[in-house]
Design goal:
The complex is a heterodimer of chains A (811) and B (112). Chain A is of the alpha/beta class. Chain A contains 27 helices and 37 strands. Chain A starts with a strand and ends with a strand. The chains are: A alpha/beta (811), B mainly beta (112).
Chain lengths: 811, 112
């Protein structure tokens, strides 16, 4: 192994090590790495010090990277070893054990120091901070010997320290400068409830008290506190939890520019270009962050530049969410104090211990403060980050998202009360306990990491909301939860779906290779997640110009059949509007006999499914059927379900079957971000189930009603009323225009209901219903795209080159 | 197994018979199918066509870099050593490949 460059990391905490993990992913062999850590432990999860203090977890539980991780990655770890000097001229660091290590790149991740009040007596024995494992050890030790502890500071850290010491049997007083606890996280009403409930648990509060001095006894031990108002409090132990300060001492000594923290640019470089800094010690655009999520975002960018990839900029973080458990669920996000131009929806149940406040500005949710019941915190946080109109949700906003997933987990919508054995992911059989264990032991911070490690939420995704909740309940504010619109497409890139689409359109990119080059993809040729998405974005943006890449389609769309668990395929021929004939049925029966089809089944979309066909038989099965593909496998129009309509039905008001056939013939072969299902019912009795389709059409005597965004699958969604039209042609035009809008704007694998959730129904109405010229253009673009479609089965029966996919080599 | 058999290379097809970023299945009577892959850099790899997870046909997976993602449950298998990508654990048996000009040969004597 030829590692020519030397990287030294000062600081063995979460930010520094996360940067190394990101760097190793990009280029494991670039650097010879040395890590200095002042503490005698490998990297651990500082956020979980509170459960260690209460005794719910041990130090071992909160270690993120054990010693073997460093060894396995060839990293020299110097624990219990403090760097005392950076010599920038010689590019070396000097440590307190006398060692001198040279660097080509230096990463400073020294974190922050607890702020110690500058009052007399602050150095007495028995005055502690709450910052690291050593502090926790001292507190645990003190709790076993001493009686009365006083915590200065009624913020998150202070309350956690108080809660921990109380749970270890100490009598605890909390001294707070202001008149409300957690004043940065809660409004006064919620703070009051919190205080009452903590008082009931035996904590004492001394509000509006400014500490003037720590008093000591003759042996130099803490004996009490004196406040500005002259009053005194006797105590055996003082824990100062009044804030943190970026640890910039080393950088300052080395002459690196600092203000509140070490000043870095958007690539996390300090004023010395070979020195980077990340984490709590940093000041970026004037902001020093004290939460984990921003540190991780910084780590990603710093690693990218350390690996000489040179892409990615850190533009600051939206750190609105804070959530921790002091035995009581508390959640807040965004701007939750009412001000000018805002209104608040409040629910208060002091007896039940629940308080919720949602702050709205215009038609957007801008803040949330929840106390006692925080189940919907993640949902509110998403709504705040997405900043989309909540006008339609307003009436039910306070009642939460409701059932997070309607199928697969018995309607449960809250994970808090579930036992460890409760199944969270019904697809892969993953229980709550397994997920919690993985989060703790593997140090997971995102839903994607949980998917990878446990497989939970990795199939149908309906339990994603529950998994998010679990993540939040385990690691609190460190949970890295983002809406799809803000997440990178996959591990190959930093760009979001929206950014990639924009680049393809604006740069006129027409091939995957060109796109990967232009957007500087991190992998040679993408992965199984981004390639199908790119192929869709390219072909839908540039129909007739961008070539469809068969090798970037998943197997079903490549072989035009649906793969089954044993590697055989299902074949569903198209039956327009669900209408068939004796001749077709006879051919289907003959195929079933000839190929010994193990099962013939009627589908939910009014078609016939032949299951258990061998791959090599597919082309001859299609030939014998003599029917076009039913596309029962693709991200495309699936079926148009119909009822018989007025031709036969005594209630029918219109020819729903004819309308369904017309729609299906027009839209067949239409590629789309996800599957698309339609239905046409001949009267409001709605026998074709139009209410749960992407587009549902209901005939009435005076015309046709169009509904959009329904879904009968993972999450049952009732379609929303879209428009009422009079004529057959209008049904085609409105439906086509809506689908084209969806094709152009939705992210890959986003169903119409999720797309509409993101952009709002009003947006779709404005583009399709209210704008006749825009509607005509959308419809024309759809027709143009559809002009390139062919029947995939016919194509494969005829062309030997594409048939090769199905032919095995025999030896 | 004697050494004479070890040098037995069986011709299966030409490079051009496998689509770039694709695979072909090699069928043998009485043995597991073999998947022969061609990656975007025109390297050829062969593994038993059976995912260590639930036996999915890897030959039908999506090929990216020197890896293939199984079509059934998206396990990713490294084509160079047959090992599943972490955090999944498992290994597919690899078959030795020799390319002579356009012609692809497999060494079937080491695999049952």
């Amino acid at each position: 192994m030829n590692r020519t460059m030397k990287l030294v990391v000062v600081g063995n905490g979460m930010a520094g090590i996360r940067t190394l993990e990101e760097l190793l992913k990009l280029d494991p062999d670039l650097y010879d790495i040395t890590v200095f850590g002042a503490e005698p432990y490998p990297n651990y999860n500082r956020i979980l010090l509170s459960p260690v203090l209460t005794g719910e977890q041990t130090i071992k539980d909160i270690i993120l990277n054990d010693i073997s991780w460093y060894t396995d990655n060839g990293i020299t770890l110097k624990m219990n070893c403090r760097v005392t000097k950076i010599n920038r001229a010689r590019k070396e660091v000097v440590a307190d054990d006398g060692s001198v290590v040279k660097y080509d790149r230096l990463l400073i991740a020294t974190g922050s120091n607890p702020f110690i009040l500058p009052v007399p007596g602050n150095d007495l024995e028995g005055v502690l901070a709450f910052r690291d494992i050593r502090d926790v050890d001292l507190m645990i030790d003190a709790a076993a010997r001493l009686k009365h502890a006083t915590v200065i500071g009624g913020g998150l850290l202070g309350l956690e320290a108080a809660n921990g010491l109380a749970s270890r049997g100490m009598k605890v007083s909390v001294v707070h400068l202001g008149n409300a606890l957690l004043d940065r996280q809660l409004d006064t009403a919620a703070a009051r409830m919190l205080q009452t409930s903590l008082e009931k648990r035996g904590l004492d509060f001394l509000m509006n008290r400014q500490t003037e001095a720590v008093l000591g006894d003759a042996q130099g031990r803490v004996s009490g506190l004196r406040f500005k108002d002259g009053s005194e409090l006797a105590t055996d132990l003082v824990v100062m939890a009044v804030g943190i300060r970026p640890n910039t001492e080393l950088a300052e000594q080395a002459g690196i520019y600092t203000d509140r923290g070490i000043v870095v640019n958007d690539t996390l470089q300090t004023y010395d270009p070979s020195i980077y800094a990340v984490g709590e010690c940093v000041s970026h655009r004037g902001v020093a962050y004290g939460l984990v999520a921003p540190l991780f975002e910084q780590a990603k960018v710093a690693a990218n530049h350390l690996a000489f990839h040179g892409i990615g900029r850190y533009a600051g973080s939206a750190t609105s969410t804070k959530l921790k458990v002091t035995g009581i669920d508390v959640f807040s996000a965004g701007d939750f104090n009412e001000g000018d131009g805002t209104e608040a929806i409040t629910l208060a149940d002091p007896v039940g211990g629940v308080y919720k406040k949602l702050v709205i500005r215009g038609d957007k949710l801008v803040g949330a403060c929840l106390y006692g019941d925080t189940v919907d915190g993640a949902w509110y946080f998403r709504l705040i980050r997405e900043a989309k109109s909540i006008a339609e949700l307003r009436e039910s906003l306070m009642f939460g998202e409701g059932a997070l997933g309607d199928t697969g987990h018995a309607g449960e919508s809250s994970v808090a009360g579930m036992p460890d054995s409760a199944e969270i992911c019904g697809c892969n059989g993953v229980c709550k306990g397994t997920i919690v264990k993985a989060i703790r032991e593997q140090g997971l911070f995102t839903v994607d990491e949980i998917k990878k490690h446990t497989k939970a939420a990795s199939s149908c995704g309906s339990c994603t909301g529950l998994v998010e909740q679990l993540l939040i309940s385990c690691i609190g504010g460190a949970a890295d939860i983002k809406p799809k619109s803000e997440k990178p497409m996959c591990g190959c890139t930093e760009f979001t779906h929206g950014q990639v689409r924009k680049a393809i359109r604006e740069q006129h990119l027409t091939s995957i290779a060109q796109t990967l080059r232009f957007l500087e993809w991190g992998t040679v040729d993408g992965c199984a997640s981004c390639r199908p998405a790119l192929n869709y974005y390219l072909t839908s943006t540039w129909p007739g110009e961008a070539r469809d890449d068969a090798q970037s389609r998943l197997v079903n769309e490549r072989v035009h059949a649906n793969i089954q668990k044993d590697g055989t395929y299902s074949v569903v021929p198209r039956m327009w509007g669900g209408v068939t004939s004796a001749a077709e049925l006879r051919r289907i029966a003959d195929v079933a006999d000839k190929y010994q089809v193990p099962m013939v089944k009627v589908t939910g979309g009014q078609r016939i499914d032949l299951l258990g066909i061998k791959k090599e038989d597919l082309p001859s099965v299609w030939k014998d059927l003599g029917m076009p593909s039913g596309h029962a496998y693709g991200k495309t129009l699936r079926t148009v379900k119909t009822c018989v309509g007025k031709e036969f039905c005594r209630f029918g008001t219109q020819d729903s079957t004819g309308m369904g056939i017309a729609l299906e013939k027009e839209l067949v072969g239409m590629s789309s971000p996800h599957k698309v299902k339609l239905a046409v019912s001949g009267c409001p009795r709605n026998c074709a189930e139009s209410g749960i389709k992407d587009i549902g059409i209901i005939a009435v005597d005076s015309g046709w009603e169009l509904y959009v965004g329904g879904n009968g699958g993972i999450k049952t969604e009732v379609a929303q009323f879209f428009a009422k039209v009079q004529t057959h042609d209008e049904v085609l035009e409105y439906s086509g225009a809506f689908l084209q809008l969806y094709r152009e704007e939705a992210f890959y694998l986003e169903r119409t209901c999720h797309y509409l959730n993101r952009v709002g129904l009003d947006h779709a109405k404005a583009r399709v219903v209210d704008d006749p010229a825009g509607r005509a253009e959308l419809y024309a673009r759809l027709k143009f795209a559809l002009s390139f479609t062919t029947d995939p089965w016919a194509e494969r029966i005829e062309s030997p080159a594409v048939r090769r996919e199905f032919e095995a080599l025999h030896i | 197994m004697n050494t004479a058999l070890l040098s037995e290379w069986t011709p299966v097809c030409n490079i051009g018979d496998i689509p770039t970023q694709g695979a072909r299945i090699v069928k043998r009577a009485g043995h597991d199918d073999i998947a022969v892959f061609r990656t975007s850099d025109d390297r050829i790899f062969a593994i038993v066509d059976c995912c260590p997870h639930k036996g999915g046909p890897l030959s039908c997976g999506l090929v990216h870099g020197h890896a293939v993602t199984c079509p059934l449950h998206s396990w990713t298998i490294n084509l160079e050593d047959g090992q599943a990508h972490a955090p999944d654990e498992g290994r597919v048996h690899k078959i030795a490949v020799r390319v002579d000009g356009e012609r692809i040969y497999l060494n079937l004597s080491t695999q049952g």
